[in-house]
Design goal:
It is a single chain. The chain has 3 domains: 112 residues, no CATH class; 112 residues, Immunoglobulin-like (Sandwich), CATH 2.60.40; 310 residues. Helices cover 14% and strands 27% of the residues. It contains 8 helices and 32 strands. The strands form 6 sheets. Strands 19, 20, 21, 22, 23, 24, 25, 28, 29 and 30 form a 10-stranded mixed beta sheet that branches. Strands 11, 12, 13, 14, 15, 16, 17 and 18 form an 8-stranded antiparallel beta sheet that branches. A hairpin with a 3-residue loop joins strand 3 and strand 4. This is Glycosyltransferase family 92 protein. Keywords: Glycosyltransferase, Membrane, Transferase, Transmembrane, Transmembrane helix. It is found in: Membrane. It comes from Stephania yunnanensis.
Amino acid sequence: MRRKIRTPPLFIFATVIAFSVLSLFLSRLFLHSSRRPLPTTTKLSLPHLHLVDDAADAAADSNLLLDRRRHRFDHLNYDSSVLLPDWELLLILLLPSPAEFSGEDLFCVFHNQETSPAKPVGNSSFKCEVPESLRRLRRIFRPVLTSFPPEAPVELVSPEATQVVMRWSFLVYESLSTETDVILFVKGVNNRQGVGRSVDSLRCVFSSADGVNGVAVRTNATHSFQEVIRCKHPDEPSVRRLVSNGGVKGNRIRVSLEILGYGRQRSRGKPVKVPSVAYYTPVRTLAGDGKKSLLCACTMVHNVAKFLKEWVMYHSHVGVERFILYDNDSSDDLFHVVDELNNNNNNNSSPSSSSNVVNYKVDVVSWPWPKAQEAGFSHSAMYAKSSCTWMMYMDVDEFVFSPSWMNSSRPSTKMITSLLPNASSSISSTTLINSSSTSNTSNIGQVMIKCLDFGPSGRKTHPKEGVMQGYTCRRRGDERHKSVVKLEAIDDSLGNVVHHFELKKGFNGRTVGVKDGVVNHYKYQAWSEFKAKFRRRVSTFVVDWTEEGSLKSKDRTPGLGFEAVEPEGWANQFCEVKDDRLNRVSRGWFGYNCSTSGGVRMAWQD
């Protein structure tokens, strides 16, 4: 007779414990997920999601599908996902999003069935907020980007494995190819201001997008400073080998950075590969009409639509030929205003300047990366080099002004360029700054203009006629400076800080005297506008105002705490000198009598 098999008591006990733990986990997951439920008509079914440790796999496409009963309801594929500060998740598309995905009805669906709305960022990425229930996890899975039809349940099907999102703190986030090299923009490699990791420890790595075929090409780094790493191009046979080996999405090649002797791998002698969302692309430059502009302006913007017309129209009439806006996650009418400016060139002059019609040229570059202003300016220096000779780096609340312009009845497109050396053959040496040292002006690569900081001037709301008309009271002394840079004079490191670039050997900078030119910086505006500055600062090395650090920094506001709370008497602060010079000049150039209101209306007012 066959012996009867008995189940050991220990096995029975372990089975009961395991079943109890599983039941408790599932019940908690169900209760936790119900805090943020999906629409009542929607039901999701998600199989178990496996963890993937390899950072290269984090860039792979999840290929999730949506089924709506018997009909296929396509989701929106995306290439990469990056976890940004403040628990924002950036989803990057390979191609611009289709028109049918408006962004208003798109959602990120996470592995625990929670959702958050997805908003468009430019035309090739989306952002969504990570649910609170996932914020304690060491790894966060890539969500599905989809739209829910309200009339039918939706069932979600996942592949066998889902990738984790990349972290912003250690990432290759952009690349730009020039005629001679490849520029990588990297977070987390050079963390100290003014200090760069040795190029001997850095190599650029070119590989297939998904990293499945194991083929990679490496080139040596030539420069390393701040968030900029420059490497040599891979040779053509290597590029062809990458493409022919397969695994390259649409013939696109992923480019990353390899670090020798980094972190825990230092003692093992193994290189560390930085996760990347960047692709190796052909040479990209600012599109132009074949004519190189003498003077362009570049700025980083976030929700500045209400200020943009005034800034562009004024500076266009005094000499700026082209504007390049690096859009840092704007959610206002920026693109609408830009379209108005670019398409309204036949009706863009004020009554006082009707004989001086200018054409507005405004370009927008998507730059969703937080605290990466210096990298954006480095990018612009190379991106616009073939289209612009000089670049003015200035914010939209800053306006160049010369006291000598008060004698002009209308603006001239030669006004700002008169401050630049060798800008025009018609400019005599006596107009140059520090004219006593004009023996060699060809080596001047940067012109620095001092800033005058204006206060709220009694205002409690934004002046509808613009900042030049609304703010007329300022602090007595000058603060900092802003620069106009000759792009070919910028050092190969592309290093810059607070709108000031490092120059190549042989080039020097020159400071404009306040009697010749200043920057009116409308810095301390009405509190309703000023409090927006408590949003994350755009500079890499400037501490956010909500953090208790760098208390003596000139970026901070005297008497202001760490929260966006209006100080008593704010409207009348920073008023030491009455200065209405630009107020009067701009009203004469751009103002006209309004028959309906009986007052003066500015050309940029809607």
